[in-house]
Amino acid sequence: MKTTQIFGLHPVIEAIEAGRTIDKIFVQKGLSGALFATLAKLMESHQLSHSYVPVEKLNRLTRGNHQGVVALLSPVEFAPLEELVLSTIESGKTPLFLILDHLSDVRNVGAIIRTAECTGVSGIILPKQGSAAVGEDMVKTSAGAIFNMPLCKVDNLIDAIYYLQGSGIKVIGATEKAPTLLYEESLTEPLAIVMGAEDIGISKGVLKVLDARAKLPIQGETSSLNVSVACGAFLYEVVRQRMIS
């Protein structure tokens, strides 16, 4: 696997200018100076995911002389949304996409990728800002499935949903607040399933543009399932319906 971390102002700036696939940049709070100004402009112009953090966070990420900046390189390349959708439709297979609405837990996303690969998902769509970093931990949790699963990072999930809908793909949200059970929905048509963040679920803006909402039956005292478990249940219901259709 390629090196997934670089640090220092010059190396990070050079990596961006060289077109390396950077998943996230951590910048020390209060950092200033000409080099930082150059970095800030590059982060903005390339729309790179970044966070301003205490120096202690950077010290935990690397033992090297980070100069206030640590970048995580993605071990995989990201596919453009339009190309991913078009190639899926042209393949002749019924599209099945996953949209992960700001999931922040690396292991949850890794587990979802593993299940997605096993269930024939066409690709996974994530927002550039606010998603779990695509790094070694995610690769390990996915059991390597991440290398066989197209990933797409987009600036705006709502715009991405509109694009999918315009391409004839139904978008359904997995939420315990849904009026109907998953098993009452038809999942045999071209489909994208939205899974919400671990703490707040699907964001309000995304909820407003969905074609449908569905939930799983909960029979215990716990109000909701872990998102990766719920995602697995949704995906295998898609598999079941499509096998018998």
Describe this structure in words.
- By secondary structure, this protein is an alpha/beta fold.
- 37% of the residues lie in helices and 20% in strands.
- The longest helix has 18 residues, at 227-244.
- Helix 2 (34-45) links the parallel strand 2 and strand 3.
- The strands form 2 sheets. A 6-stranded parallel beta sheet has the order 7-6-5-9-8-10, sandwiched between helices. The protein has a 4-stranded mixed beta sheet with strand order 1-4-2-3.
- The N and C termini lie far apart (41 Å).
- The model has no long low-confidence stretch (mean pLDDT 92).
- Helix 5 (106-118) packs parallel to helix 9.
Short description:
With 245 residues, this protein is an alpha/beta fold. It has helices at 9-17, 34-45, 55-61, 81-90, 106-118, 136-141, 157-166, 204-208, 227-244, and strands at 5-7, 22-28, 50-53, 69-73, 96-101, 123-127, 151-154, 170-174, 191-196, 212-214. The longest helix has 18 residues, at 227-244.
SSE order and pairing:
Layout: E1 5-7, H1 9-17, E2 22-28, H2 34-45, E3 50-53, H3 55-61, E4 69-73, H4 81-90, E5 96-101, H5 106-118, E6 123-127, H6 136-141, E7 151-154, H7 157-166, E8 170-174, E9 191-196, H8 204-208, E10 212-214, H9 227-244
Helix pairs in contact: 1-2, 5-9
Give the distance, in angstroms, between the N- and C-terminal Cα atoms. Answer: 41 Å
Number of helices: 9
Largest sheet strand order:
7-6-5-9-8-10
Low-confidence stretches: none
Order of helices and strands: EHEHEHEHEHEHEHEEHEH
- Write down the overall mean pLDDT: 92
Number of strands: 10
The major sheet is characterized as: 6 strands, parallel
Roughly how much helix do the residues carry, as a percent range? 25-40%
Strand content: 15-25%
Whole-number radius of gyration? 19 Å
Structural class by secondary-structure content: alpha/beta
The gross shape turns out to be elongated
